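Subgroup meeting minutes
Present: P.N., E.W., G.H.
Scribe: E.W.

1. P.N. recapped why we're keeping a running log of single-chain structure predictions: easier to compare across weeks, and new members can see raw inputs and outputs side by side.
2. G.H. added today's entry (325 aa).
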Amino acid sequence: MTGDLTIGIDIGGTSIRAAVVDERGQIVDTARAQTPATAWALEKCLDHMVDRLRSRSEVVAVGLAIAGFLTPDRSVVRFAPHLPWRETAVAAEMSRRTGLPVSCEHDANAAAIAERRFGAAAGGHNTIVLAIGTGIGVGFLLDGEIYRGSHGVAPELGHLQVVVDGRPCSCGKRGCWERYCSGTALVDNVVEIVADGRVPTSALAREIAEDPGSLTGRRVAAAAHDGDPVAVAAFADFARWLGQGMAMIADIFDPDLIVLAGGVGAAGGLFLDEAREHYGAMVTGSGHRRLARIRSTQLGEAAGMIGAAAVARSDLADGVPVLHG
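Output recorded in log:
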């Protein structure tokens, strides 16, 4: 099946991105949609995207990159903070509906697999991939292989509490790291900066005063690129939290490489240098240890799709997914 095509679908809390991918990790075709709020609507949306892509390309399997807890065999989605699935056999049910073999993988693991095979994680020994988008997903490559923990859910570093009684998180806790270092965190940063008046007013501040619901992480990034002072301050807060989180990761795992992936991770030019400085200053034993190399993704927002497609290809070759026609 060397020349066969597979579909990779990255299912995030805000949007769904799908692609037809070849064995070299090259994207042949794409589709995109907003993430529906209910399980029924989400499944219909996924089926529609697969039908649209397979009408234009002959594909042999589908891989899903999911922001949530999977069982060790990746067959059931136990819990997804930003998605409606709970204890759902997503792969088998979608396979029955589409007539194609379907594989599931944690979204950060999918990004890590893609970056390892085709991108910035190539050559890393112990590598952390931070998929920063709506939230934070983390993939850990231990000696080049995905580390899943004893029950298939490691490492959920985005939901470590960094602020006692802090911002509420969709996981049910408060003060999780991803509430201060993600696309949604950028929006909260802007709201707080405008509210406390610590930065002079700006075009972005006036824009959200007129239409608060229009603010997104992408809009904050665009404003920061234009030099908007509120947006720049929001990214400064983001960089501090990212540096602190990477220092925490280094203290726990001591990786030799950290790759920043995901939609926000791909905008590294806005925060990466500052985050590196915070990381170097806050890690335990600063100045007396080797620090991890920090790289921005080479695959951008496509990493999850490319990784999911690669997982589907590997599972099909190994006979892992079962087709329920």
